Amino acid sequence: MFQKLDWSEKGIKKNGRCLSPRFADDIVLLSHDATDLQERINELNIASTEIGLEMNTAKTKMMVNPFCTREQMEVDGSPLEIAAFYTYLGQIVPGDGDITPEIMQRTRTT
């Protein structure tokens, strides 16, 4: 499915390559621009539907950092929840850049 999506020039670049981290059924869309992000959400939703998958809007979240505007994103008219943090592959990723919760979790598990 991702080969069909032409995202080679969309999102945030690192070392000349656009990032869209994904693992199994988890994907993170990164963007400098709200319009680009909404377009990619729409493209992902359409591509998913075409192969019989459905985006779970109850589990689909968005996060903004202090340097961007808080524009509402949606999937098929359903607004996405704005989360203060998310957990990706077991690591807490905070919207505000504060890594204290991640450090606290790691010290509790060791």
Describe this structure in words.
The protein has 110 residues and is an alpha+beta fold. It has a domain at 12-84. The chain is 25% helix and 24% strand. The protein has two helices and ten strands. The protein has helices at residues 34-50, 100-109; strands at residues 12-14, 17-19, 22-23, 26-27, 61-62, 74-75, 78-79, 81-82, 85-88, 91-94. Strands 1-2 form a two-stranded antiparallel sheet. It is globular.
| Strand-residue proportion | 15-25%
Summed up, the helix count is 2
Query: How helix-rich are the residues, as a percent range?
Result: 10-25%
Specify the biggest β-sheet. Answer: 2 strands, antiparallel
Work out the number of β strands.
Answer: 10
Major β-sheet strand ordering: 1-2
Helical/strand content category:
alpha+beta
Radius of gyration based on Cα positions? 15 Å
What would the average pLDDT be, to the nearest integer? Answer: 79
How far from one another are the termini? 38 Å
Coarse shape:
globular
Low-confidence stretches: none
Order of helices and strands: EEEEHEEEEEEH
Protein name: Reverse transcriptase domain-containing protein
Organism: Henosepilachna vigintioctopunctata
Domain Reverse transcriptase: 1-93
In short:
This protein is an alpha+beta fold and 110 residues long.
What topology emerges from the helices and strands here?
Blueprint: E1 12-14, E2 17-19, E3 22-23, E4 26-27, H1 34-50, E5 61-62, E6 74-75, E7 78-79, E8 81-82, E9 85-88, E10 91-94, H2 100-109
Parallel strand pairs: 5-8
Antiparallel strand pairs: 1-2, 3-4, 6-7, 9-10
